[in-house]
Amino acid sequence: MNPSPVRAAPAAHPPAADASGAPRSPAAPLTPRRLVLLFVAALAAAWPFLPEFSITLLNYIGLYALVATGLVMLTGVGGMTSFGQAAFVGLGAYATAWACTSPVLAGALGLEPGSAALPWIGLVLGIALSFCVAWVLGAVTLKLSGHYLPLATIAWGLSLYYVFGNLEMLGGHTGITGVPALSIGDLSLASGRSLGVLIWAVLLLAIWAMHNLLDSREGRAIRALKSGRVMAESMGVDTSRQRIKVFVLAAVVAGLSGWLYAHLQRFVNPTPFHLNIGIEYLFMAVVGGAGHLWGAVLGAAIITLLKHQLQDILPGLLGASGNFEVIVFGLLMMLVLQRFSGGLWPTLSAFGARFVRTPAARPPAHMAPLPRRELPPAGRVVLEAKEVTKRFGGLVANSEVDMTVKAGEVHALIGPNGAGKSTFFNMISGVDDPSAGEVRLMGRAMTGHPSREFAALGLGRTFQHVRLLGQRSVLENVALGAHRRGHRGWLASMLRLDRAEEAALLAEARRQIERCGLGDCADVPAASLALGQQRIVEIARALAGQPAVLLLDEPAAGLRHLEKQALAKLLAQLRDEGMAILVVEHDMEFVMNLADRVTVLEFGQVIAHGTPEQVQADPRVLAAYLGGDELLGKVA
């Protein structure tokens, strides 16, 4: 558990010399940033010389990729499947089409019909509509889970499609014609070639902003939504609010794509916003790589080009016209999803890893100071349970359990398997609500409050079954525990205005990792560690939040003897610093040599309470454990 010794860096080799004997500087490595800049430069250089048809295809790829990036955030990262994104594209398209062609709006704003300002007013209207509709729909549908959520997105996707086709003010199924071209000052974007520059600029800016968001405190919270909501709530993340924000982000990006689409096509009708188009958008995100922003661009390009080729090739092969490409397209998608379940981008990235090197992150010169918690004086009751009862139907898991935890002590909660320890643990940390009784934290009644409010008052915890983001690094997992110690929001993260605070959070996470003896593992995926090490990662994550009360659920499980000794030394140090620690553990030797007080549960009831010596001498405790005499001899 002690931090690993610092290794000396290997001596640098002298730079090679050229033919004249002068030192030759090494070639700059190809990094992801340089690769993106090369891609943008190549696209910009080729843009004036590409044929019109290629420009049209690239414009549609850019529009589709913009929607797919939102789906990457929503589905691939946030874990919420949506089939209805085409409806949000329609909101953006119809908003600007109506704003540009409605004499009522132009008159109300004091503008001439056809004014160059109307498309930009349509942009604001489209974003506002997408935002509001998504917030309302998200507040309703995101409460659903499992297959009910995607079914709900199908329902409102179809509803909005038929709204577009049945409102007379929107032209019915005929749609709205005469949508003007965009212009920026005296610069007209009437041609696809000129508007395509704006489309790809918006797409690249969106990818940049979303990448910045994921590389931040808020991004770690978003990544936890897919598989770690209970854990994230216990770290202080408001997961319901984060889910709605991701949903709204995906909708606004789709609405922005719709705005660009309307001014590219110069007319709008309901057909491009049907449910089947929404399914295609989802395919683009999944085929490209649902967890990767650049996978959205890859997926949009593959599916757009594939559809175009199939529409040209199949009628010639089959000798008849029809929607044969849909059949072949579906079969090809099944093949791709079976062979590349994570999408094509991870495979492409793995191949390119031999040529592209990710540089080490450089911390900023300034780190924002993190707020620090004043620990209560030793001996003060910081966590209290009064007659806490939990019923599951006719089963009573806990019955009128009383317990107090004081600052500056290690309190152990023990009992046989099935005694109700984990259930009680979840109630006093806010994961579950008690059926009766009261839980108080720092003197405040907390019954009925979510676990993130327990975290805000200074409670940190680990879990009986390890809950980590397995594909993320140990550093990122531990930094999630410090979520409430940062305050920068989404906008600051997208614009990289949070770098000083982010550096401080990562520095604190690294300090806790090294304190727990896992310094060498900070940058490896958490899933690659042994179970015992993963439990230590959970402890480091809880410590990153600087808790006043630390709840540890079987922290020594899976640890070897020397690792248990190091853990006991760490917990003793935390106790001496004034932290209150509650431990649930089956290793009696570990518990009895560490705890100041012990509470024993059996069948959900307290059967003993006191010092380790008093508990070991209690006949009810001996009767509750098989081999009680052996236990006493082992601990003594």
Rg: 30 Å
For the largest beta sheet, what order do the strands appear in spatially?
10-11-12-7-13-14
Please report the distance between the alpha carbons of the first and last residues: 25 Å
Strand content: 5-15%
Mean pLDDT, to the nearest integer, reads 88
Question: Which structural class matches the secondary elements?
Answer: alpha/beta
Please give the number of β-strands. Answer: 14
Overall 3D shape: elongated
Runs in which pLDDT lies below 50 for 5 or more consecutive residues are 1-20, 626-636
Number of helices: 25
User: The biggest beta sheet, please?
Assistant: 6 strands, mixed
Helicity, as a percent range: 40-55%
Give a topology summary.
Layout: H1 32-46, H2 52-77, H3 85-101, H4 103-108, H5 118-141, H6 148-166, E1 176-177, E2 183-184, E3 187-188, H7 192-214, H8 217-223, H9 229-234, H10 239-265, E4 267-268, H11 275-289, H12 293-318, H13 324-339, H14 344-352, E5 381-392, E6 395-406, E7 410-414, H15 421-428, E8 436-441, E9 444-445, H16 451-456, E10 459-461, H17 474-480, H18 490-494, H19 499-515, H20 531-544, E11 549-553, H21 561-576, E12 580-584, H22 588-592, E13 597-602, E14 605-610, H23 612-617, H24 619-624, H25 628-635
Parallel strand pairs: 7-12, 7-13, 10-11, 11-12
Antiparallel strand pairs: 1-4, 2-3, 5-6, 5-8, 8-9, 13-14
Helix pairs in contact: 2-7, 2-10, 2-11, 2-12, 3-5, 3-6, 3-10, 5-10, 7-10, 11-12, 12-13, 17-19, 17-20, 19-20
